[in-house]
Write a structure and sequence with these properties.
Elements lengths: L6 E8 L6 H13 E10 L7 H11 L4 E6 L7 H12 L5 E4 L3 H9 L2 E4 L11 H6 L10 H7 L1 E6 L6 H12 L3 E2 L2 H12 L6 H19 L5 E5 L2 H12 L4 H9 L4 E5 L17 H13 L5 E4 L3 H15 L9
Parallel strand pairs: 1-2, 1-4, 2-3, 4-5, 6-8, 6-9, 7-8, 9-10
Helix pairs in contact: 3-4, 6-9, 7-13, 9-10, 9-11, 10-11
Length: 332
């Protein structure tokens, strides 16, 4: 019959750690030849990427597939056990098994299914999960947006008022040809100023931190290896302390859950420039000290950048390169 697919039920099984273009090619091949495709993600508790994230990424990239996660507690070399479990997971034997591995013959054979080998020599897509985990930057072109969002290194430029954070963030983004995330707190503050609202509340800072992070997460998907952020939720905790006069446990708890790979603290040795919104010239140096103290008490690597714009940019670029080095070659 015209339009009828070769197989009814097809299965694709693997770690997908992480999903890459080779996996997408494999799944797309199965979808093109099967009426129904079940993708089985094998998850171990020690995996560096949780199974539910891999499931969400694959479901986003392949909405026509049925993507599931199973608890991987079995001998990876025992094809009979994997076949028996697959029959239980699916409720029946699949008509076809799609893999890029030689184990597929035995695995499919135990279920009475046909094995379809897809690009076993990796000619169509020369990539592997191991290669991505070792050096994701080198495999960047093989990664889909949600996976890029996971591997993008988040470089956060922060500091007291009028210390050049935005200038440096924009310059870094231009150098690395990648997006940068502007300071949402400034946007929010301008709105309050326009409304004549000069009173701050703790909930507003949590709102700012959440929106800043949401924008970071969205931009990370489009990042070219690095994502440059002009401030982050971590800095919002200090601005809360500045304007409210006390610390907020919920805000600080949220900030600790946010991602950052390197903090760049801009020095306060440059002249203060009033832009109509800033009010901290008299306390700028004290605020700078707060940043130093807070950065010293948290685990993310950080570095202070000072000097001319060119000197700051050169220092920052070198620091970013250290963060983006392959596993085992990072100094920062």
């Amino acid at each position: 019959m015209k339009g009828e697919k070769e197989f009814g039920l097809g299965v694709v099984i693997g770690k997908f750690l992480p999903p890459h273009r080779g996996h997408h090619f494999l799944i797309d091949t199965a979808l093109s030849r099967c009426s129904t495709v079940v993708v089985v993600i094998c998850e171990k508790l020690t995996d560096p990427i949780p199974g539910h994230l891999r499931q969400a990424w694959l479901q986003e990239m392949h909405p026509a597939a049925d993507v599931r996660v199973i608890d991987d507690r079995y001998d990876e070399n025992d094809s009979r056990v994997w076949a028996e479990n697959t029959l239980g997971w699916l409720g029946r034997a699949p008509d076809a098994v799609f893999t890029s591995e030689h184990y597929g013959d035995a695995y499919a054979g135990y279920m009475g299914s046909r094995h379809v080998m897809v690009d076993q020599p990796r000619h169509a897509v020369p990539c592997s999960g191991t290669a991505v985990r070792t050096d994701a930057f080198a495999q960047w072109d093989h990664l889909a947006p949600p996976v890029r969002g996971w591997y993008a290194k988040r470089i956060v430029v922060l500091g007291a008022e009028s210390t050049g954070t935005t200038t440096l963030a924009q310059a870094l983004a231009e150098y690395f040809e990648t997006p940068w995330v502007a300071e949402y707190g400034r946007e929010y503050s301008l709105g309050k100023q326009a409304r004549g609202d000069g009173t701050w509340h703790t909930d507003e800072f949590l709102e700012i931190a959440r929106e800043q992070t949401r924008r970071e997460d969205a931009a990370a998907r489009e990042a070219n290896r690095f994502l440059i952020c002009d401030t982050a939720a971590f800095a919002t905790t200090l601005w809360h302390r500045r304007y409210m006069g006390f610390r907020s446990a919920p805000l600080e708890g949220f900030a600790k859950s946010c991602r950052a790979d390197l903090y760049l603290l801009t020095g306060d040795e440059i002249p203060f420039v009033q832009d109509g919104l800033r009010d901290g010239e008299s306390i700028r140096h004290e605020m700078h000290g707060w940043f130093e103290e807070a950065l010293a008490s948290q685990p993310v690597p950080w570095l202070q950048v000072t000097g001319t714009h060119e000197e700051r940019l050169a220092t920052a670029i070198t620091a970013c390169a250290g963060v983006g080095a392959p596993v085992g070659q990072r100094d920062v």
